[in-house]
Design brief:
The chain crosses the membrane at residues 61-83, 99-117, 129-146, 153-170, 209-229, 241-260, 266-290, 302-326, 353-371. The chain has 13 helices and four strands. With 379 residues, it is mainly α. The strands form two sheets. Strands 1-4 form a two-stranded antiparallel sheet. Strands 2-3 form a two-stranded antiparallel ribbon.
Length: 379
């Protein structure tokens, strides 16, 4: 990790000739991280509203939208950051080196989090949220430096089509027929053959090897949106195109979902289109409200979280040792908290959510201190 102190973080964009940052993207990144913490740390994992947990298999919940939206934001940020460097003629060799090093750092931190709190290397899991972010960033950044937006669009479309054909036409080895059930599909079989270590669900893992490819398309759609944002179109035209593309993409994903169900665990092609369409609509709406109309009230918490997004994500896992694992008496803090709230008459699921919101606020404290001191930690 490196940090920059006593200066503003490097702009993620340069829209028109304005020196102002794209506040909407900064805020959206931060609120997405806050949402990740909210759903990852319920007060009671057995008492969670449907929208605050991942769907068991096919379907979509609020929680299922968070990871693809963040990958979409990564794609947008790649375009905003590297387009200027390409225009300046910066050596690609140096950019390649920094991309690889950054990806390795993010992957390594993800492995560190997987080892918390026991550091049991005999039961290690090699996949996870940060590992996927690292791989998607690596793939998308290399693509951006070596292809134009049309080629990126074709690569994304072909990847989704090939993934769909593979999962729906190739029989699952050992079964003899095509299956798309938990642990009984081509993706799960591939992991049992080639993925080392422990898998999240025992016989399969939601951050699988094969699903990394369509998840990279989530990043590619963000890069395409980023290309629109740095174009010579007027701000209102950008919003119109972004919202139109988002609506069309989400609608196409919904239609595909009728035959190839949206599924985050498999990161199906329909899931990519629906969530990328949603992300484009969300970015367009926030861009219009914040950057065009100037309604910046309420964006500050998102900007603070977003200034050190991955750092805050890591801190949440570290702080969870104190707030979720250590025993104070016979119970942990989250157990004490949920018990106290339910004792006051709160529904158990509401009590669980309120404790999760409390934990989000706990993580806001170090995020705010870092932001106030102008310390921006970059992996």
């Amino acid at each position: 990790m490196t940090s920059q102190k006593n200066q503003l973080p490097p702009p993620a964009h340069s829209l028109e000739s304005s020196p102002n940052r794209l506040i909407s993207l900064d805020a959206l990144r931060g609120f997405t991280i806050a949402a990740m913490i909210l759903v990852n740390f319920p007060g009671d994992g057995n008492q969670v509203y449907f929208q605050l947990q991942h769907t068991k298999w096919n379907g979509l919940s609020f929680t299922d939208l968070i990871a693809p939206v963040f990958l979409f934001i990564i794609g947008v940020s790649i375009t905003l950051a590297y387009a200027k460097r390409l225009e300046r003629g910066d050596p690609k060799g140096e950019m390649y080196q920094k991309i690889v090093v950054r990806s390795l750092k993010i992957f390594a931190v993800g492995m560190f989090l997987n080892l918390l709190p026991t550091f049991d290397f005999s039961d290690i899991r090699w996949t996870g949220t940060l590992q996927r972010i690292a791989l998607v960033f690596l793939i998308c950044a290399f693509l951006f430096l070596n292809t134009n937006w049309k080629q990126q669009a074709w690569i994304g479309a072909i990847t989704l089509l090939l993934y769909w054909l593979s999962l729906t036409q190739i029989p699952t080895p050992g079964v003899g027929k095509v299956m798309l059930e938990p642990g009984k599909n081509l993706v799960a079989w591939f992991d049992t053959q080639f993925l080392p270590g422990r898998m999240w669900q025992g016989t399969w893992d939601p951050e699988s090897i094969l699903s990394t490819f369509p998840s990279a398309v989530s990043g590619i759609t963000g890069m395409l949106a980023g290309r629109l944002m740095i174009s010579s179109l007027t701000r209102n035209e950008k919003v119109n195109y972004l919202m139109t593309a988002g609506l069309f993409t989400a609608a196409l994903g919904f239609l595909w979902n009728l035959t190839f169900p949206a599924n985050e665990n498999l990161w199906t092609s329909s899931f990519v289109l629906i969530t990328s369409g949603f992300a484009a609509l969300l970015l367009g709406a926030v861009y219009f409200l914040v950057d065009i109309l100037g309604n910046t009230k309420g964006t500050k918490p998102g900007i603070i979280f977003g200034a050190n997004a991955i750092t805050v994500f890591v801190l949440a896992d570290v702080l969870s040792i104190l707030f979720y694992y250590l025993k104070f008496g016979s119970h942990s803090l989250n157990e004490h908290g949920v018990t106290a709230l339910t004792g006051l008459g709160f529904d158990p699921r509401l009590a669980s959510m309120l404790y999760a919101l409390f934990f989000v606020c706990v993580n806001f404290i170090p995020a705010y201190l870092l932001y106030r001191k102008k310390i921006f930690i970059k992996l």
